[in-house]
Fold each of these.
Amino acid sequence: MTTAFSALFEPGRIGHLNLRNRLAVAPMTRVSANDDGTATVPMRDYYQQYAKGGFSMIISEGLYTDQLYSQCYQQQPGISSPEQADSWSAIVDAVHAKGSVIIAQLMHGGALSQFNKYRSEGPHSAGYGPSAVQPLGEQMKNYYGSGTYPVPTAMTPQDIRDAVQGFADAAARAKSAGFDGVEIHGANGYLLDQFLTNYTNQRDDKYGGDLKNRLRIYLEIIDAVRKAVGPEFVVGVRFSQTKVNDSRYSWPEQLEAAEEIFGAMRIAEVDYLHTTEPLLTRPAFQADSTAPDGPSLATLAKQASGLPVIANGGVSKPELAETVLADGQADLIALGTAALANPLWPQSVLNNKALKTFDYAMLSPIANLECADRYFAAAD
Ligand SMILES: Cc1cc2nc3c(=O)[nH]c(=O)nc-3n(C[C@H](O)[C@H](O)[C@H](O)COP(=O)(O)O)c2cc1C
């Protein structure tokens, strides 16, 4: 097949997974699960459409890991029980039947939890985080939230051990359900990122203070997950600087942070890194007159880790994605909103079809599949 976008459609590889091209669907929470956290038939069809549309890798929405404090959103799916994991087998099979791989994103909401059907009986009824610091911003309305976030209580060492174990158990369940790998959600302001971020982590134990300590929970989780799934199963980690509730944060140690964080991932022997920025090519750290074209976060991740990197953020047109891949800034490109607007994006590009522009109305008033269906029906 000839295409102007040869880098996009070149086969790829992550761990032992062979990928038919370099295009992934970014993880996107769609708050469409049953009340008990199991996945539904419309969710199966939703994920399968991306495989039919030619994406070689699909990363699931963030799945909560345990029945303690990890759930973040009402109608969020979980992978905290065998029943929840089993409910994903039909989705996994539907995606595999169309030639794509599917990775389970494991997510712990921490202090950004807007809803948790399990925690009301627990000691942290308002939720927990690394420290008792009220999150910035307001809860997300299209995920059923309203008002400010409650002040979390600070996690005890036992809470941290339980959360780490939750990731390991969830990863084992993902493997049993047939997923091709797991992605540890270390980005966007959720629990792990709360540890990494200096203003949400004010601990004075081994999990707080310098960068090495703030990164510790990532390494403990990677280690526990690896032990739970064995050496062959794909394990990736997602990183960002900005957060759902803070679009301005940048790693205070800048380049030094990138080198330490991504270098630690090389040593931890994860299979891939996934970076997300508002625009995937933007210089990771404040550009100034001496460095107006500094490297992107994806480029730094590749340089410091030597691992395959999935880059995400702001891609709607194939030209940009092609350039990033051809320049060697990343190995895969993950599309979020462009995939929502164009579930068949890879095929549309191959067949030279016009691409639709993403419209936030699609996720309104609730970011679930039902509202999106209604939006598309009205647009037809
Ligand atoms: C509806 C929606 C839900 C999202 N849910 C998640 C999620 O569960 N986990 C995650 O890591 N990122 C999540 N994101 C962020 C996306 O993965 C992606 O980083 C973001 O949309 C920017 O990429 P884009 O410019 O290609 O859309 C979500 C984004 C959207 C639009």
Amino acid sequence: MGYFVPVTPGTRYVSVGGAIACDIHGKNHHLSGSFAQHVESLDLIGPDGTTRTLGQDTDDFWLTAGGMGLTGIITSAVLRLTPVETSLMSVDTERVPDLHTLMRRMRESDDDHTYSVAWIDTLASGRALGRSVLTRGEHASAQQVRHRRRGGALPAEPRLTAPPYAPGWLISRPTTKVFNEMWFRKAPAHRVGEITDIPAFFHPLDGVAGWNRLYGRRGFVQYQFVVPDAGEQAMVEIVRRLADAGHPSFLAVLKRFGPGNRAPLSFPMSGWTLAVDLPTHPGLRTLLAELDRIVVAAAGRLYLAKDSRLDAETLSAMYPRLDEFRAGLRRLDPDRVFRSDLARRLDL
Ligand SMILES: Cc1cc2nc3c(=O)[nH]c(=O)nc-3n(C[C@H](O)[C@H](O)[C@H](O)COP(=O)(O)OP(=O)(O)OC[C@H]3O[C@@H](n4cnc5c(N)ncnc54)[C@H](O)[C@@H]3O)c2cc1C
């Protein structure tokens, strides 16, 4: 018997402070909510240098959760962990031919699975628009893995290292199309109960040190948004725009969120979220501005943990409780001791 973090993102290289400050979500958001919901209390050093312990019954706890580090420095936290019998996962995988089928499958049966996420081929178009590989998982029970080693499944170091400067053609439209085709075909049409380790299921990118350098010297942007259930058509439209634009992306994941929480700047809300890595390209800024407009029209929003390009006006159209957050900051830190580039750009 052991314990696992209640919410883990797609990398294990995060701190507890960063997880609270971004109120991160995992593949289990539809059932378990986001990180802050599992924090009983946290210690925060405020602008005057004193430390306060904040519980979920205080407004300042919820300003700090998702508050992007602007309320102070979190020095410790009390977390509720998830008991697990083994450090292995039992994983079901299925290939899904298009986006409508995928969303129907997730709507109908996500609640039967603790963890659920879909990889989408953003270059597929026409009848194959949004074809995907849907992966669901549970912590494996001792009974399920009685013939296998049950512990020590966390590798200490990445197994591969990306070259220091990958050539530009590596992530081009033709190579990405081939990669996506292979990734889709390599997935089983339907497999149930595969036993994998925690890194393979939750943190596959951590296995490649410096994976971000694969995008070459120009780098990439990760675009992540959420739209409410009623904005499902906006999700379809954005996947179509990405396919039409043909920007090469081999990493695009769709998740279903459950309800949000009390934190005014927390990202998740009931609905659909897509996170997509897009190599920097001359037309990218224009495309993303168009996608922003679709997200706003659908009453959705972008995730600040991934943002480097929004402006203050678009942000206020996305976060209806932004004024509440700003008022809280004026009260907590009137001299603005805690600032960041993000806060300056977004007028937080
Ligand atoms: C490969 C990859 C996959 C990811 N997958 C997911 C995912 O599935 N879900 C998800 O939600 N996020 C995901 N993320 C984003 C990541 O979880 C968040 O950005 C997280 O906040 C990073 O934690 P960090 O400790 O590195 O924080 P940093 O990047 O150092 O900081 C992030 C923010 O937290 C603040 N902060 C950090 N430490 C403290 C502290 N002690 N006190 C107060 N404020 C603090 C900083 O000021 C900053 O605003 C992913 C990131 C990567 C690189």
Amino acid sequence: MKLIMSPASPFVRKVRVTIHEGGLTEQVTEHPVTTTALDTPAEVRAANPTGKIPVLLRDDGPAIYDSRVITRYLDATFDLRLYPASRLWEVLTLEATADGLMDAAVLMVYEHRLRPEELWSEAWTEAQWGKVTGALDAIENRWMSHLAGPLDAAQIAVGCALSYLDFRHPGRSWRDGRPALAEWHAAFGARPSMLETAPE
Ligand SMILES: N[C@@H](CCC(=O)N[C@@H](CS)C(=O)NCC(=O)O)C(=O)O
């Protein structure tokens, strides 16, 4: 199988961490691409009509996307047990919370990187940051016991989301007022799967 990817993408990182945690690095080769919302390589669009990464090119079936579909596919195919039936709706909801955080954080980057400066909207950017902080507060207040449990797909998503904030929004100090999440992330970020997938 081949993963169409870029190391900087937090959605790609979710998949890469899943691959490392599952011991699947021999089964999935990485195919790096450079893509933005304004410039999508033809091979990405051919595999995913929305033009987004990650995409997994399977050996025995059509390409699949997005990150949640790929992690669930890997989980089911290789019996990784990252979506345990007993906690499935909690795992999916927390994963969706982390993915929503990433969506907002990525859109903030696009606003300044892809749009002309005269069109930048402070109100829009801060509204996106409000989604990030809302997700962070929800995790700090309601999900820490879940994060303390056995490794699952939601933990991977949260870890990648927080590391993306460090990578792209270091001045926003997401740890302020969220000591439990900061402590959890310090430990999670030291996992070999996180160290081996860190963007340059
Ligand atoms: N919901 C998608 C989001 C993927 C996504 O937004 N990927 C970004 C990179 S971080 C992308 O490909 N952007 C290019 C674009 O928006 O056209 C997923 O979970 O895979």
